[in-house]
Amino acid sequence: MKQFTLPRTDLPASNVILGMMRIGELDDAEIRMLVKTALDTGITVFDHADIYGGSPHACEARFGGAVRFSPAEREQVLIQSKVGIREGYFDFSAEHIVSSAEASISALGLDHLDLLLLHRPDALVEPDEVAAAFDALHEQGLVTAFGVSNHTPGQIELLARSVRQPLIVNQVQLSITHAPLIAAGVAANMADDPQSVDRDNGLLDYCRVEGITLQAWSPFQSGKYPGVFLGDREHYAELNDVLDELAAAYGVTPTAIALAWITRHPAGIQVVLGTTSPSRVREAAAGSELRLTRPEWYRLFTAAGHRLP
Ligand SMILES: NC(=O)c1ccc[n+]([C@@H]2O[C@H](COP(=O)([O-])OP(=O)(O)OC[C@H]3O[C@@H](n4cnc5c(N)ncnc54)[C@H](OP(=O)(O)O)[C@@H]3O)[C@@H](O)[C@H]2O)c1
Asked: What is the 3-class SS of 70-98, one letter each residue?
């Protein structure tokens, strides 16, 4: 498992993260087994959000009820959560950020969060309020570092004018089949090619320039059709052929190859797994340090339907 230090921090992290959005249906023993499997493979980062689980803090409470880290383990793991999505609206008010982060910490059974992300851009954001909330959480030792999710460069710049802590992470949807962040750049300036349309204002390059680590959510979801692209021969026959061929060549499963397609990108992207299956965690983790060649990476890219001009 590739380990690195998150840029602009001294926080150690694995390049594969275990996401906790879907653990609501698991019992305590299954949650413990999932987390133990992750730790055994070298995954040290766990991704939560206040809204996961249907009611506020439900999945965080399931995790907190099932998993107790020893003090030594707690020093090694990085626990992150997100705030800002509420029932029917988004809320970056200082009061909500602080109270929700405190409730996340309590539900998780922790004394602090290592990283807190603003989940989705709030159209009514007041950057000074965000700054006040982050200061309060940071000064009390409740949150070590801060980031965003699903934010454009302009939205990050706006926040950064007020927020005193660096925004170190931007968590965004990215998989081989849902890759507009990458595909638009490849087709830059092609007037008749819809792939060239940059809907996110150069988000990927901006994050690289600023040293903001991207985290890829839904790494195996199609993004276009329901479910994962792995094994979906109705919509992704050519892609699955290439995944199978490379998996056989490297002695891993297609899941590992699909993960390696993301980690091969030089932006140093972390991959947020959503599986609730320990065996799939192991399969995916096998791709953490697998370095695809350039031709292999581009073959997967085009087999997924992206074009080269
Ligand atoms: N920041 C955001 O806005 C945002 C949005 C969504 C998610 N997230 C985060 O990203 C994490 C991952 O999202 P995700 O769950 O959509 O990602 P994912 O890993 O692409 O999808 C996992 C889901 O696909 C299923 N699946 C079916 N076949 C699979 C296969 N062959 N390999 C792997 N999975 C397969 C899994 O079922 P099994 O459980 O049976 O394996 C699970 O339900 C979440 O847990 C959450 O932490 C963040």
From this structure: CHHHHHHCEEEEEECEECCEECCCHHHHH
Cβ–ligand 1 distance for 171 under 6 Å, the answer yes
Residue 46 belongs to a domain: yes
List the domain range (segments joined by +) for residue 279: 3-303
Q: Is 52 a catalytic residue?
A: yes
Helix axes 28-41, 58-66, angle to 10 degrees: 80
Asked, for residue 91, whether it belongs to a domain, the answer is yes
Ligand 1: does its nearest atom lie under 6 Å from the Cβ of 118?
A: no
Nearest residue (by CA) to ligand 1, atom 41, is: 275
> How many structural domains does the chain have?
1
207-250 per-position pLDDT tens digit: 999 999 999 999 999 999 999 999 999 999 999 999 999 999 99
Place of tokens 């099932």: 66
Quote the ligand 1 centre to 220 CA distance (angstroms).
Answer: 7
Which ligand 1 atom minimizes the distance to the CA of 255?
32
In this prediction, residue 136 carries a pLDDT of 98
Q: Is 259 in the pocket of ligand 1 (CB under 6 A)?
A: no
CA-wise closest residue to 159 among 209, 150, 267: 150
CATH of the domain at 245: 3.20.20.100
Q: Side chain identity at 221, as an amino acid letter?
A: Q
CA-nearest residue, atom 21 of ligand 1: 274
Which tens digits make up the pLDDT trace of 157-207?
A: 999 999 999 999 999 999 999 999 999 999 999 999 999 999 999 999 999
Q: Is the shortest distance between the CB of 47 and ligand 1 below 6 Å?
A: yes
- Report the distance separating Cα 2 and Cα 33, nearest Å: 22
DSSP assignment letter at 212? P
